[in-house]
Amino acid sequence: MMSLVPTPDALPMASGYFELLLLLTFPLHLVFMNAMLGGTMLAIWAHFKREPVHERLAYKIAQVLPLLIAFAINFGVPPLLFVQVVYGHLIYSSSVLMGVFWLSVIPVLLTVYYAVYIYDFKFWSLGRRGLPILMFAGVLMLMIAFLFSNNMTLMLTPETWDIYFKNSSGTFLNLAEPTLWPRYLHMLVGATAIGALVIALLGRLWAKQDAEVGELAQRVGLRVFLAVTCVQIMVGLWFLVALPADVMMMFMGRNLFATAVFLVAIATVMGVIFLAVKRRLVLCGGLALLLLYLMSLMRAFVRTGYVDNLFVTQIVEAQRDFSPLLLFVVTLVIGLLLIFWMIKVSLQAQEN
Length: 352
Prior knowledge:
With 352 residues, the chain is an all-alpha fold. The chain has helices at residues 15-49, 52-97, 99-121, 123-126, 130-154, 180-206, 211-242, 245-248, 256-277, 281-310, 323-351. Helix 1 crosses helix 10, helix 6 runs antiparallel to helix 10 (281-310) and helix 9 (256-277) runs antiparallel to helix 10 (281-310). The chain crosses the membrane at residues 20-45, 57-77, 97-119, 131-149, 184-203, 224-244, 256-276, 281-302, 322-343.
C-alpha cells in the first residue's frame, strides 16, 4: 500500500521554512474567505427582510463582495503553493483521484465572480431578482469549499488511493472519510461567524454614510457571530472526536505544544465571546484573528499527525539555496503593501 505514495521531491531548504510560511499566510486567506461566505449569507438574509434599511445593507455587502473574492483568491495562492511544496507527493496524488472535480474549481470560481459582479453592478435594477443570483453564487462557494475539504482529507489517507485501480476517471470523492463532514462543517460554521464579525466591523465604517445601515450591520453581525460561535464549539468537538485516536491525543497531553495551543484556543474563544457581548468590536476582531492563527496551527498538528503515521515526512533537502525564498518574501512584502494601499483607497472612495 505504501508504494502508492510517491517519493518526495528534493527541497532547496528545510521544510520547516515552508511550513512556517504556510502558517503565516493561510489565516490571511481565511479572513477574506470567511468574510466572502459570511457576507453572502448575511446579504441573503437581508433580502428576505423586505425593508429599506435591510436592502441598503445588502447593497453595501454587494459592493464589497467582488473585492472580498479577489482578496480571498490572491491570499489563497501562497498557502496552496506551500502545501504543494511540502506535501506535493500527497496532494498531487489526491488531486489526480478527484481530477475532474478539482479542475472544475476554476470555472466554478469564475462563475461565482461573474455572478457577484452582476449582483453588485445591477443591484438596484435587479431588485428582488438579485436574490436568486446571490443564492446561486453562495451554493457555488459551498461547492468549492466541499471540494477543497475532500482534497485536504484525501491527501492524508493514501490507504484509499487504491480506488484508482477501480475508478481512474478522476471522479472519486472521499465521502467515506469520517473527518470529512465535521471538517467541512467546521470550516463553514467558522466562516459564517468570522464573516459576520467582519460585516459588523465594516458597519462601523458604513455608519459614517448611513447610520441605520451601520447600526444594523453591527447589531446583526455581532448576534450572528455570538450564536454561530456557540454552534462552532459543538462542531469543533465533533471534528476533534472524529480524528484518529492517536491524532486526537496530541491535543490531550501526548504533545505538550499541541495541547497548549488547544487550551489557548479555548481561552481565546471565550475571550471573543466576552468581547462580542460587550460590543468591543475592534478588540474582538483582533482576538478573532489570533484565533484563526491558533486554529490553523491546530490543523497543522492534525496534518502532521496523519503524515507521521504514514512515514512520509522524510523530505529530501537538496543543496541549500535561500534565493527563491528571499525573492518570494520580497515579492510578498511588496504585494501586501500594494494590497493595503488598494484597501485604503477603496475605503476612502466609499466614504466619499
